[in-house]
Amino acid sequence: MDVAFIIETIVKIVVILLVFSALAGFGTYFERKVLAFMQRRLGPMHVGPYGLLQVAADGIKLFTKEDIIPQNVVKPIFKLAPVITAATAFMAAAAIPFWPEFTAFGYKVHPIVADVNVGILYVMAVMAIGLYGPLLGGMASANKFSLISAARSAAVFISYEVITGLALLAPLMMVGSLSLIDINNYQTGGISNWIAVSQPVAFILFWIAAFAETGRTPFHLVANDHEIIDGFGTEYSGMRWGLFFIGEYANMFFISFVMAIIFLGGYGDGSIAGALQLLLKVAFFFFFFLWTRAAWPDIRPDQLMWLCWKVLMPIAVVNVVITGVVILIKQGGM
Amino acid sequence: MHVEPFTDRNVSEQSAYYYVDIENYPVTGWDKFKQVVKRSIKGELFVGLWVVMRELIKFDIHTVQYPKEKLPIGPRYRAVHKLLRLWESGFERCIGCGLCEKICISDCIRMDTRIDENSRKEVTEYSINLGRCIFCGYCAEVCPELAIVHGDRYENASEQRAHFVIKDDMLTPLDFLTSGQQKEYPGFGAITPHEDERVAKTPLAY
Amino acid sequence: MNEITITIDGKSVQTQEGEFILNAARSNGIFIPAICYLTRCSPTLACRICLVEADGKQVYACNAKAKDGMSIVTSTSTIEDEKRAIMEVYDVNHPLECGVCDQSGECELQNYTLEMGVDSQTYSIADTHKPAQDWGLIHYDPALCIMCERCITVCKDMIGDGALSTVARGGDAIEAAFKETMPKDAYAMWNKLNKSLIAPNAGDTLDCTNCGECTSVCPVGALVSSDYQYSANAWEHTQIPATCAHCSAGCQISYDIKHTSITDPEDKIYRVKNEWNYVSLCGAGRYGYDFQNSDVQKDAVKFDAAVAAFKKADTISFTSTITNEEAMILQRLKEKFGYRLINEEARVFKAFLNSYSTISGQSLYSGNLKEVHESDFVVSIGSALKTDNPNARFAMNNAITMNKGAGLYFHPINDPVINDMSKNVTQFNHAAMMEEAALYLMLDLFGDKSAMPSEVVSYLATFHSTKMVTIEETIDEKVTETVVKKVLNEETGIEEEVSEEVTKTVKKKVSKEVEVDTNRLYELLNAPEGFADTLTKYLAKKEKFALMVGPDLYSHPNSINCARLVALIEKYTAFNVTMIPNLSNTLGTALICDLDATAGSYTIGYNTAGNFTLSALGNGDLDMPALNQQEGTLTSIDKRVNPTNVAVGFGGYTLNDIANALGFNERLTVNYTKQLPVNAGFKAVEFDTLPNHYTNAGEEMRGYVLTTSSVSINGDESVSRFDESAAMRKGIVYLANPVLQFTPFTAKAHQLKESGGLYASAAFMSANGVNEGDRVRVKTDKGEIVVNVIADGKIDGEIPYLPTFDTQINSSTLFNGYRFATVSIQKV
């Protein structure tokens, strides 16, 4: 293999890790600020100007805090679980094109770690492995509430994997490729070409499922603070807990990228304007995560499962069938 | 910060409270589905989103940045206790009757008394265990001499729990008294305005 | 006394004929207010608030006696007006210092003011300045005094000191206008109140035995303990019901405890309270409460040493200041390991009791102090009554004062306190060793000669002789004369002169020659001149006879004979006999333990000297809990097994821990309560079931009374004659304690701390040329010690005494068992 390719890949990996770790941190800052403003509060104000350095303060706190491993936990699994969450989140980023190709110092850069031809399948698969973080962490914690949380997270993740899969099926049928770059390129040519326009139902379904996949309000049942304390994270402290946190926020960013690329046209034609559009779209999705948290209450676990299996799943199946029929008619008719 | 929003507590059924109209819960699956569709389409979810977005845009922030800004506290605020002195003589008002000790519902007041050189009851030590005190104010209420009162010092974080709770901490220092800094609280036993003019001969028959 | 039925407020009530209405009401749960009345004392009629209407006539419930069929109404509108006016008058000029007053709410003035609903004041008078007075252990604030005179009454009728009386108050007279407008009784009460104050008879300070009962009965905060003053509020105390641990009276007390201070959360005893209507304390009981062995931690090394010492020892020597349970443990240890148990005073008491039983046929003596209280002729032999058992002295005084009784007191040391009781008490200051003569005299004077053993009768006859003497006989003669006398008008309070014709009987003396019977026992016992006549007067209308015998007899060289004589007195006279045990639990110890006379080679001393000492005084090899740190029972002079409780905690080991280490297995010392020997009169009851209180009717609900069982007797009632030549007349010393002291425990209490010496009367000091504070060498044939001379105003005559309470003075080594010893005393 080409040494330059290896170096480039390593550099890309490091950049993605650093950028998204930092973004996860700033994500918390933004979340606090947005929630505060929506609730007529100021949010963090004391560390740095307008509380900007709050992230650094939290980082220092998390890194320097005593790493407590409770007595009765299953120690290897307990230690491993946060790593799974963080690692799978970042692994999923490997197949995501964050930026169109550009040339720097005469070198052509592909801002994607691995442009595999089954990109979206890879992303979905790795994100699905992320389930093991909360599941193992909760089960290993020797804590009843953690265990309940683990069981819930397994149920929610597995159920909503079905929705994400079925919702994606229809666009993929249209695109005919699993590569995210191909999907992006399919939509070049303006808003009317966006898959969200041709597949609104799939878009809404995927968006709803994204809340469940990332465990955000109104589907924040995995670590429901007021019901089961902090769920699977109850027994964690310090940086181990921080890894869960980084994983959650990184996931939010990546799923925002995935949604922007698959449904809202991605970076379009690859121009700088298109690239900035992508960032704006991602920012909107991220902001929407925070927005819903300020506005909506959590729903009950049974309502969540009911919604999944009795409402969303049938709609998704019908959507796939209709899409198939339409494609068949289009091809056959043409 | 303004006091008005805090002082206007004129809440009545007509003015501030209204009942939420709750529909009957759906029973069948079809009803539930209809409810979901209805709610989704009616845009209830978006009302919520709009409300918080509106507040974000209005940016009407109510946060009091506490250590820098402080809210005014009411004159009857019940914070850490104080022991007062008599205005003119500077003697301690506390006579050691022990009523505060008796009435204290969390049993956190203790005092040591003895007979002093002038054959009067002297309170040698007085303590309130702030770890147990619930700041109900009964001690101040029952005090016949208006000696123990609640002060306005509510910032009682300290390195040691025992701080603020022994007699020396609570008693008005003499220089405070002479410089007129001892706050007087209205209530039974308090000095009323124009006290000197009101003093009259005792109504005994002789 | 006949059972009668009276009606109070429509409720039918059973009572005794002659009982006061107030007591009948109280014992049946009917409330009649009363301030000045004390249950066992004479009515004072100072407060007048106990007004009731009996058969339509207003009477005072405290001094009106119930008659069969009487109908009593406690409340009419006149009575209510009187009561309210009385309470208003009490509140006139009463200082408004309830906040700091030591009564802190336990105040009868407060209670009755509220009860009568006094919410306004109609009466007034100029106040007088009445400075507070310090009387040593007692503090008097006349400003707070409401002149109920309970202190005076209890001091005279119960204690017998009569140290208090009223003096003029000074100040203005009550405005004349009030006389017309006020209710009558309220005015009379006020009139009296406004004229007097309490003062000691001896001037500025109290001359008494410092029992402090006056502070106990005071309904307001006028009389308080100087030490307690302003140190705590009554409501803060937890009251621990207990039994006084100092003497055999076993008085009911409660230790009032509270945390020591803000910085010290450990419990501390602040004062001792008693049910003053039914039990009176002496000063040692009231002020000697903090004798606990404090600041003791469990020291495993010392404990192991103690266990090792027990394994090594063959003798356990102990005192009787232990509980029955501890005595039981010691007895069990003896049974298991064969220890010898040494407790000389309990052993001699037991021997005395046993030889008494061989004639009386009863395992225990017949009397108790309650019966002494109820009797009207009391005799005490062989006891320094006021210090051996103050309650026995109170009982004698109360009986003589309240029942119009008389008494005889046989003791070598003249006791002015006994003289103060009544003029109807005669002291026999006989020579030491002449106690048997006193007992023979009792047989001679009161014995049924026709039933008594003939030997005794004939022996008694040898003391009698007849001779002709010229006596002066008094003849009554009636004379009529006019006298002018001053009469105090109750209503105005002014004395008026009234002349009236009076017929009175004048005694006229006539000389006459008669044949008289002389009794040489009188002479042997130093009877006062003309005692035979005095006795005849004493014995008029007497019904109940009580004899108290004391430790002098138990330690007497002929104690066995003394015991047999006591049994004969009980059998052939009307007297019932009460024996005064030496120490707190001498009776219990004597009944529980098999005691040995001689010690072995290695002795464990419990509160006494030994090769290894366990001590509750804190000076031994292993610390033990004092009696206010233990729960358990104490056997009192009343043959009652009284429970006592833990007042202050003890951090160390107990005797039970040692017993458990030696192979016993009882978690608590009080597990032994139900194991106390039933054949000795104890009952197999759990400690926790023992009550400790008095009912409203004055019934003593404390522990249980020992069962007296009958003992087989062989009919041998022979007693030996006494040896007149053994009399010790001059140069002797006595072994006793001063007032307020019993044991080293009383001397440990902070209010009673003192060091002992040779206690001597003024007469002794002037006769021997010594002064208070002089060092003297006291030498007997057993040894010698050098001590200070201490003046004791409460004895008379030429016999000094040495105390046992001071561990620095090894006084008992000078004595050969008997409490008197021949001595030479030289100044050094």
Question: Could you provide a short overview of the structure?
Answer:
The complex is a heterotrimer of chains A (334), B (206) and C (828). With 334 residues, chain A is mainly α. Chain A is built from 12 helices and 2 strands.
Q: According to CATH, what is the topology of the domain at 81-189 in chain B? A: Alpha-Beta Plaits
Multimeric organization: heterotrimer
Calculate the mean pLDDT score of chain B and round it. 79
Mass-distribution shape of chain B: elongated
The Rg value of chain B, from CA coordinates, equals: 28 Å
The biggest sheet of chain B, with number of strands, parallel, antiparallel or mixed sense and barrel status, is: 2 strands, antiparallel
Helix content of chain C: 25-40%
What's the overall average pLDDT of chain C, rounded? 90
The CATH architecture classification of the domain at 351-579 in chain C is: 3-Layer(aba) Sandwich
Biggest protein-protein contact in the assembly: B-C, 26 and 19 residues
CATH class of the domain at 351-579 in chain C: Alpha Beta
CATH architecture of the domain at 81-189 in chain B: 2-Layer Sandwich
**Strand order across the biggest sheet of chain B?**
1-4
> What spatial form of chain C do the alpha-carbon principal axes imply?
globular
**Any low-confidence stretches of chain B, pLDDT <50, length ≥5?**
none
How many beta-strand runs of chain B?
4
* Distance linking N and C termini of chain B: 59 Å
Q: Could you name the CATH class of the domain at 81-189 in chain B?
A: Alpha Beta
Q: What is the CA–CA distance across the termini of chain C? A: 62 Å
Strand-pairing-aware structural class of chain B: alpha+beta
